[in-house]
Write a structure and sequence with these properties.
The chain has one domain: HUPs (Rossmann fold), CATH 3.40.50. Helix content is about 50%, strand content about 25%. The protein is built from 6 helices and 7 strands, in the order αβαβααβαβββαβ. It has about 150 residues and is an alpha/beta fold. About 30% of the residues are buried. The two termini are about 35 Å apart.
């Protein structure tokens, strides 16, 4: 209680915000993307938009075929370009698009966050069924394994 009495609220400012979008589930990313764009515009912050090519979703033959990997990378780059365009149209000025490969949660924590160095990471919830939203295993990995603040948006 004594600690609280002497405490003064401090304004939080964000200069770099990272939004992690799921390339094959727009519904889980939509509200999180709206939130990320709103904050980035409000704080005039850099906005990193990242998506992970989930190599575990490919069968062994697909993962060994350079044409399949290249095609999937291009699809994700095109998707991120649309996200970037939407953010720019909304008024976000400084946008970084990032495509990487691996398991999403681990890759975001081990590669994207250390490279981009955001103040805040934003993730959406999975919509497994209509009756319930869940944080999802990949978002949970990000929440539990980074020292950066993470907002999970429904």
């Amino acid at each position: 209680m004594d600690e609280l009495k002497g405490y003064k609220v401090k304004k939080i400012e964000y200069s770099k915000i990272l939004i992690c979008v799921d390339s094959d589930d727009f519904e889980s990313s939509k509200n999180a993307f709206n939130y990320a764009c709103s904050l980035a515009k409000h704080y005039d912050a850099e906005l990193g938009i990242a998506s992970v090519l989930e190599t575990g979703d490919l069968n062994i033959f697909q993962s060994l075929d350079p044409d399949v990997l290249s095609e999937r990378r291009e699809e994700i780059k095109e998707l991120l370009a649309v996200y970037g365009e939407k953010a720019r149209d909304y008024g976000v000025q400084n946008i970084h698009l990032m495509v990487t490969e691996g398991t999403p949660g681990t890759t975001i924590v081990d590669k994207v966050i250390p490279t981009f160095k955001p103040d805040l990471v934003i993730v959406g919830v999975e919509q497994k069924n209509r009756s319930r939203n869940t944080i999802g295993s990949q978002a949970a990995k990000i929440v539990n394994n980074t020292k950066v603040s993470v907002s999970v948006i429904r």
